[in-house]
Amino acid sequence: MQLTEAFKIIDKRLTDFNNELGFKKVEETDKSVTYTGEKGSYRLVYDSESTIIAFECAYSEAEKAEFNTISRSLFDIDVIDERDAKSTANEVCDELERMFKSRKPVDLDKVKMPKAVSRGQAKRGALSYDVDSLANRFGALYPEFKDEIKLNIATYGEFLPETFFMEHGNDKVLGIIKNGTAQEQKKLFKMLGEIFEDGTNEVQDVIAVTILGEMKNDPAMMEVADKYMTEYMSGPVHEVNKITAKKNGLTKKLSNPPAYKPKKNKSFSLANAIGQDNAAQR
Fold it and tell me: What is the pTM of this model?
């Protein structure tokens, strides 16, 4: 199937929703199709290298839009058929209904940043750092990401760390590890290390797998990480990176792993991180 043919099938399935929500197709290229209206804009973007089709949205007109990726699906043109195209269209319809049918454009000024557990509470063991704490501390360290954090919350009703870091935060993190100054690198790992040390299972999982697992055992980046990681965080990060450096079935599991439950003074269990040893699913 040609991509243009797939887009036609999807477009036909979207007709009723577009009419109801006031969207019109404004652009179609050899890799994407874009719709816009008073409620906002959305588009489908195909990546031929990864054979992934991304569904992206914005709460503004297409010309002014800063699109955010809402979902990604495998869409191999060489093997898909009409049924697959219709299935993708149905998924888009579900997202359109969730995001636009009953929602108004988001005023990010009215969306509050997540609250962080205080250092004192975490050190005393009264409370543990959670994913909201990670969002708060990341936004404080890198204020240019506050709007993206707020948009993540507005879109999903809560902060989804995997989505935020995979789509936005990880580029910043990896950029600092690769090309940042020693001071920038030290600040980054100090923040991540503090949260990991006294964090919940979920936030430890996000740091070790979703964020630092994206180093994929690159020697130069791992050398930088080893300069600043705490001993407690170093073990899990190294074990995860040995897996993420390889392209196999476990790598896919690591992209959305169940939470592991490491205990202090004990070694990190990679089996828990990738869902083995009867780890509980999220």
Answer: 0.58
